[in-house]
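help with this.
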Amino acid sequence: MKDYIELEDSVLDAAEDAAHHDNVRTRMQAISHLFDAIGEHVSRSRFHDKPTVTAALVRRAAEAYVSTRRGFVADARAVA
């Protein structure tokens, strides 16, 4: 369980970092690389149900990315 929590923390940090890029293409490349890295890491791990773990981490990464982007959009609208 500790391995999953550490991996999830890293995934969430990386997703938030990806959302900070100004350029849309750069953001999409960053999140794509993150999804690839999740798959690679989980495939090399000792997790029992790898597809479920991969899906959960990808979902959490997407949620963190979207939440961070929404925050930026809200901040930009507040300033305008």
Remarks:
- The radius of gyration is 14 Å.
